[in-house]
Structures are given as structure tokens and as C-alpha cells.
Prior knowledge:
Four copies of one chain form a homotetramer. With 285 residues, chain A is α/β, with parallel strands linked by helices. The first copy, chain A, folds into two domains: 6-27 and 86-284, Putative cyclase (Glucose Oxidase, domain 1), CATH 3.50.30; 47-79, no CATH class. Helix content of chain A is 20%, strand content 23%. Strand 4 (75-80) of chain A pairs antiparallel with strand 4 of chain B, so a sheet runs across the interface. Chains A, B, C, D: This is Cyclase. Chains A, B, C, D: Pfam families: Cyclase (PF04199).
Amino acid sequence: MNLLSGEVVLNALAAATTGQVISLSMPIRGATSSPAPTTIPHLRGRPLPQHFMSVDGGDYAAGVRPIGAGLRVADDALLVSPHGTTTHMDALCHMWSGESLYNGHPASRVRSYGATRCGIETVGGVVARGILFDVPRHLGLTHLPADFRISADLLKEITDDLRPGDVAVIRTGWPLTWARSPDEYWSGQPGLAADAGRWLAEHDLALVASDNAAIGGLNPRQLADETLADDLHLILLWRHGIHLAEMLWLEDLADAAPDHPFVFVAAPLRIEGGTGSPINPLAIL
Amino acid sequence: MNLLSGEVVLNALAAATTGQVISLSMPIRGATSSPAPTTIPHLRGRPLPQHFMSVDGGDYAAGVRPIGAGLRVADDALLVSPHGTTTHMDALCHMWSGESLYNGHPASRVRSYGATRCGIETVGGVVARGILFDVPRHLGLTHLPADFRISADLLKEITDDLRPGDVAVIRTGWPLTWARSPDEYWSGQPGLAADAGRWLAEHDLALVASDNAAIGGLNPRQLADETLADDLHLILLWRHGIHLAEMLWLEDLADAAPDHPFVFVAAPLRIEGGTGSPINPLAIL
Amino acid sequence: MNLLSGEVVLNALAAATTGQVISLSMPIRGATSSPAPTTIPHLRGRPLPQHFMSVDGGDYAAGVRPIGAGLRVADDALLVSPHGTTTHMDALCHMWSGESLYNGHPASRVRSYGATRCGIETVGGVVARGILFDVPRHLGLTHLPADFRISADLLKEITDDLRPGDVAVIRTGWPLTWARSPDEYWSGQPGLAADAGRWLAEHDLALVASDNAAIGGLNPRQLADETLADDLHLILLWRHGIHLAEMLWLEDLADAAPDHPFVFVAAPLRIEGGTGSPINPLAIL
Amino acid sequence: MNLLSGEVVLNALAAATTGQVISLSMPIRGATSSPAPTTIPHLRGRPLPQHFMSVDGGDYAAGVRPIGAGLRVADDALLVSPHGTTTHMDALCHMWSGESLYNGHPASRVRSYGATRCGIETVGGVVARGILFDVPRHLGLTHLPADFRISADLLKEITDDLRPGDVAVIRTGWPLTWARSPDEYWSGQPGLAADAGRWLAEHDLALVASDNAAIGGLNPRQLADETLADDLHLILLWRHGIHLAEMLWLEDLADAAPDHPFVFVAAPLRIEGGTGSPINPLAIL
């Protein structure tokens, strides 16, 4: 909330032209709860979401009695470790170097019961102009190759219409590889080059979002391997306090091919002390 | 998304006048992860959220080595059963009577691996005009008493400016009792009377939201005790397919005292087959 | 395993006279999974076990197809925080004072990914002579009062037949209060006095087990309030490396009224780095 | 408990000769909590155990204040889906064909809140003579090949000393392949042939245990592919009510090479309505 003045928000809302609302989220598909449990892009080795029903229609089919006068209810539980498993937003406490978080808060305040500094519950919500950088479309590709690093110059070729408070939405197309082969998806990931991160940081954005898993690229061991100076999380999240959103599903937005800014809304769950939150970002064209 | 045409969305966005963004969500405070684990309003006996850190600043203080060149990361997991424990939205599969869900889908499709009909992942997002019914303020009360049932006439006294696709936001003030005494919070809950539910249903709303736990009222056993014909979930969710959002935090919105509609946004997580989702609804004034 | 030489184990097995096997465990009853979710003794405010079925008979009643030729399977998941919620055994890493665990291991080795020193997986199993101290029966009571602290002299009155490697099983009867009133159960707990802990420690036992929640007593705030020198966990677990088992169900054993030692077996799950484990201890008379 | 008369138990205890206690359990290694998260044999695609610390030594290193006079405590939570992920015991409600569980109980009693018939909490404990069938050793192999099915004749060659109430412990050596290659482990599994299951069933055993994942063999898709008549779970668990324990670690027991029966103890957690339980079975030689 504090990211955005009322004027910036009103300007953002003015970007809508058709009122079409597009979800930028992958489904959350539970490891145990689905007939097709592993068909969603995710980083290898991460604990997948688990979704459990504590009462469901099957129970009534098996003879469970309704509540009171005849109500039937289905109820459930979700376990989710958002980083690397689903569309999510990073809190400012998610990554740092040395002893201090963004803005000098001591990293020792991030404890087993949660972060008392820079937790995801401090975000409130993001309502901003969204700018789509559809890099593979610009290059005539279906998706970027795994080792592709997006330079600042390439972003500028697409657009330099970035204002303070905007959200830059970076499409790599990499999630499309999943349907072909999870092993290909895990073979690395395209992402921003360090100079692109610095260029975005100069614009005082509210958020940088991407359909890849780490904003920057990943090597085949699923690690970012830039130096500390060039690490994308450190540039954006740690040095500049710019929130990150990762693992978005941008194909529907890309198909709509907006040639102008849109309204971007993300409302992370107010998980007290959380390092991030699963989100369902919305684009309003 | 299919709830709302582009025109309705554009009209909704036009309701914003100052650009102030207010979160309508309570914090999610974990049962195990907080120094103050039980200070959030919730229904008695429900499994509280649990929030775990899988790596945190304490680990680095204890000597864990950074990743690669010197990155430090905090990561976590959240377990949440949204109904009754935190701000959430109900899927259309959450409640029914007899053998069929809303729109005639067989209830037997709601199984342990999730609902293949009417799950929360089908919602996409809600972007609508929000209309605040601040019932206690209208009556000169801090909060409604536990046995108060809000009639249609009382809602109409506040406003009858409801259009198709709007979101009715019903404030009872009941969460304020929690700070005084959880036992008082658990002694019952005020909520809509059946005729109010029917009146709202007539307006073809996108969503009815409230700061109470069940839209309708609850008795001291924390149960709705209307007849099947008069049950608020059945009237709104089951018969009319109007989504419900419960356990909102409306005090900040009430303090802003909007005397006109605002933009209401809710983006439930796309939990495949889920009966609901925790949400962080936003009001944009 | 290293606790017990082969000779001690063979002596323990020789204690059996009738071959009757009695479980000393309470049921694990899930917070979400039971029609009667809160009827098991537990400490107030602790996260209760949660038990979820990922596929069950209800699903087949609702039309799920069998596997392959016609197999039907039920599968489930358990979430448990054993301390304070169910019958469990404490690892040596569970409690300490200052910077070091039992035996001087640095406490900083107990991290978010588990304890690399003194975790529960190092126990293996306990096969020992069990000696029942049925204190309320000795005093002609149904159960001890909440503020009762069991002295060394009182234990000695019951028996002083304790050998190295034995398991002392201390009955207070306190779980019987639960059926009358959870509030009474939560009003405090009887337990060992410090001098009783010291006397037991002198005997080089393998384990001290009790039906109370903390071996020592608890005040109405559910805290042990002895000084550091007199704290029962510190005396037994930390200073002497004697494992503890708590929240046993001893009523069936008490009804059998063994007037001689029996075989006591406990096999904690080999949870790597765990601070404890739920257990189902067995008495073989 | 009802499986075993006192006489049978006393006979079992008499099998011990050296008092050596050997754990037959793999460690439980959490998916999120370990520096080496996936190095334990498990079936592909199953949700791995998750182990979380809710307070640990790192928190104190980061400045968390001790409790009261100076106590420090570590506490944790375990989430486990035992089938296919760790050493566990199957309840009689785990598998069936048609509409009825073992002994004619309706399968519709196995619901989302647990099984009210044939749940794991009814087992109590198993204290029995254990008989090791070390099949690869008998054949001069390190481990059996993936497509090996152990016939009744082969078991009889090893020993026919089986009495009612005994536990047959079948070693395949298959877990040894894991260290070489998880893909090899997942390429199939050796196990009992149907006639071996029938021969064991004739002996009225208390339990059949194995180091493989399904008692019978598995094909490369990790499925049992016998007919319904020949399925090992149906023969043993469903038709004869003989409990099963799977994914044991038998290498330490095999190294001890017992040439005579031993004491076998397993004490499943009393998970109310559970389809199984993680266990730490003990062999007492």
C-alpha cells in the first residue's frame, strides 16, 4: 500500500480499456490430491503443494449424515511452500547477503516463528500499471532458450515506457517447455541479465514479475550463478526493495497481446512473517 | 472472469476516486509460528493456520553457510484450512443440500483429490463495484449484538444502489469482540436474515462479503440454525451461484467511511478442486 | 540401542510372566479428521494432530474407479507436533540451558532442517525392565491433585527396585480429569519433585515415562516453574541424558496392577534431526 | 494385541539369545528440512515426509529469549504420508476389492475423517517371533533383480519353521540399488509371488514384512500387476487379515545373519482411523 500513492493508483486504473480480466496464475495442483499430480511446472526437489479434503461429496455418498436440517459441506486444507512450486510473490525478507535485510533490518529477526521485519504481510496489495515485455514474441520465438539472458537493451527495444510504481512483466515462455518434458524445463531457465535488473531498478518499479522461477536465469543445477553484485534478487529485492513475483502464467496475457499498459493487481496473503505468498495476479486490460 | 463482462469491470474501475488501497484481510497468524498464536478471530475447534520456516535468519546466526557466492535465503511453508480460520472466499462446491451442487453438478464429483466441478480455481478473479453496508454505524453501535439478524429493510435503509456484478460488503463489527474476549466472540455471531439474502440475490451480485464467519448468523454452538429454505449459504451460494467471502477485516474500510461505491478486488488462489481459498481482498477508494 | 547392553535386554525380557501386551499410548485423534476432534488430553494452544485421507472408501462410493484389475486403496497423511499433543518421547536435543545440549554438543546445531546432534533418530529403540510407580493408587486416590509434587521418599515407599537401564513409569492419573473437564486438565498438572528426579537420575535409567505432560508438574499457565537447578527436564534429559516419555495412557496398565517389573518397549520413529517422536509404548507383562 | 495370546508372546520373547537390538527402519528424512532431501528410497511421485522446526537452536543464536528462568527448547512438526515413502505398517483398511474390507466391514466406513473399521489404531502392538528369509543371500546375490518373484518353494528352501503368530521378514536387498541410482530403484521391484503369499497365509502369521515397497513385486510403472486373485495385498491383508510392513531396512539385520528366530516388535502409532503408520520395527536377537 505504501508503495503506491493514490495518484499512481488512479493512473494505473486508467490504463484499462476493455475491462477484460486475465488471471496470471498457474493452478495449484496438490501432490496427493490430483489424479495427475506432477503436471505443473515447478523446480525439481521442492516440496509440492498438498491439498486435502477433510470432508467431501464422497463422504456423503458413503453415508455421512448432513449437518442439521440437511446441509452438506465440503472443506479442505492446503499446504504450500510457494517458492519454486507455484505462482508467488517474494517478501523483502526472502533474500539477502551478509547480516542485514533490505533497508538495514537485522537478518536475525527472521526466525522460526516468522520474520518480524520485511514479512509478506507488510505488502498489503499492489495495484499498478502493468507493462508486458514479451521477449520471445519480440524475437520471433515460441520461448527463449534455457541459457538466454535478457539484456537491458533488449527490454528497451520493446518499450521504455516505464514510470515509478509500474510493474514490469517479463515473459520468457519457458513454462511451455513443461508440457514437452519436465526434464527440459529443469535443464536451466532463461531470465534477466544483471544490466536489465539495474535498468528496471532505476525506474522505481513496484514489482518485477516473470514466468520464470527466479527473475534471473538458472543453470542446469537450478541455481542462479551470477556474482553477488549481479544477482537479480539482490539487485531488485535486497538493494532496491522492489518486490518480485515468479512463476506466473503469461500465455493467456500474451495471446491477448496488449499493445499498451494494463492494470496489474496482486494481493499476497497476509501471512504474518511470511517469506512470500502464493498469489493469483490479475491483469485488467 | 465469466462473472463479469468488460463493461461491468470498466464501470467498477470508474468507482475509484482517491486511489487509496485498503486491505480487507486479517493477518494469517500461525498456530505454531508466532509468539502470540491465538489472537486472531476464528471459530473454536477449527484447525488454525500453521506457518513453518524451512530456513531462516536464525540458521545463519547458528552458522549455516550461504548459498554459492554469499546469498542467504529464508523459505517457508503454510498450512491453512481457510473456512472458519481466516479471511477467505467460498467456492461454489463448498455447500449444498441433497445430491447436487449449484447448477446441478453432481456432488459426488467432490472427492478426496478435490472437486472436479465448481472448485475455487474456476473463479479467476473478482473486479467489481463494492458497496459497504456498515450496519452498526447506521444503527449507532460499535458492533451488532450476537443475536442480531440483518433484515432486507435495514439494508435498503442504508442503500439500494446495487447493480448486477456488484459486491455487497456487510459489516457487523463482530471481530471487535475478539480483543475483549474470545469467549464473547464464540458466543454467537450476528449476520444476514434470510430475507436480506433473498434481496441481495435478486440483484445478481458477483459476491457477498462479510466480516462475520458465515454470512448468516451463528448460534452459541457456532452453527447456522435456519431452515434449509432460509440458510444463507444455500440461498446465495447454492441456489444463485453467488460467491461468498467471510471473515474480512472491515474496520479500516469503515474508518475511511466511503459514502460511495469503491473498487473491490479479490483473487482467490487457483487451488485445483479447492472448496475455497484464503484471500486478501482489496478496496480501492 | 547403545543405551542397553545385550545382557540388560535379556534381563528385561525375562521380566515377562504372562505375555499380556498393553499399549501405553493415547489415540492420535486429528483436529480435522474426526467427528469428535478435541476429546483427547492435550496442552492448551498446541497445534493438534491433523489426519487427512488422500483417497478413501467415500471416493469409491462416489464413483472413483479402482486401480488396475479392481484394487481399491485408502491412503492418508498425518501432521503431528508431538510435544504436548500426544504420547511421545523427547530427544536429547529437546531442552537445554545456555549454549550446549547434553554432553556438550553445541545448541547451534539444532537448526531449521533438524538437529544434527542428539536427534531422536539416534535412539533406535528402548527394550528395558519397566517399573510402575502408581502413586495415586499407593495414596488411595483416583488421581493426584494438580499441585501435587511427588517426592523421592514417596517413590521409595512404592519400590526401590531400580537397576541401571530400567524404565521408571510414573502414574499420576491426571489424564482422567480430561473426561470430566478439559478446563480442569488445564488447571495445572501433578508431577515429580526435583528430589525425585535426582533420585531417579542416580539409578542410570534408560527412560523416565509419565502420564503427565512434562514429567515435572505444571502450574495453571501450563509452565514448569522450578528453578533451573530443579527443572525436571534439565535434571534428567540435559544433565544425565535420560530420555523422557510423556502423555502416556497408563490406566490399562494400572488396572492390570503389575506387582513386579514388566518389559517396556518404545521405538521412536527415526525422524532425522527430530526433537521427539510420537510413540506407542508397549508393556509386556 | 488380540492377534497374540500371552503364550505366543512368551514363546516369542524366548527367541532372544544375545539381547542385541537392531532397528529395522529407514530414517525419516524431510523433503524440506534436510541438506540432502531426496536420498532415501521411496516410490516416485509420492509426497515425501516434511519436517519443520517451530523453534530451534538457530532462533536462540538469533536472540530469542529463553523461557522463564533460562530454559531453551526445540520443537518440531512432522508431516508424513507413510505408504511408499518410509518404513510403515498397513492397516487392514488399506486395501480391498469390491465393497467390503477384511472381515466384511463395509468399505464405505473409510471416510475423510478416517476409517471407523479396521484402522491402524486397532493393532496395538506386535510382539512375535521373527523369521528372516534372506533371499538374495540364499541365492548368492547382493540383491534380487527387479523382475524376480519369490516362489513358495524358494521360501521353503530357506526355512519352513513358521508357527502361528510369527512374523515373516522377507529380504530382497532392493533398497541397496538406491545409492547407485534412484532411477534403478524406480525401474521395478522384486517381491513375493502369489504362491509364496498363499503359503505364508496358511501359517496364520501375525505380519509379513519386507524391505520392498509392496510385499509383491512392482513393474516399471511402480504398480503391482497380478490379477485380483494373485495380488499379494489382497491375499494377505484382505483375505486373511495378516498385517503388512513395508520398506524396512534389513541390511543391519542381514549383516548380523541370525540363523535362528528372533524377537520382532512393531508398535504402530494409534492414529485413529489411519490406513497405516510409520513404524520403527525392532529385532531383538
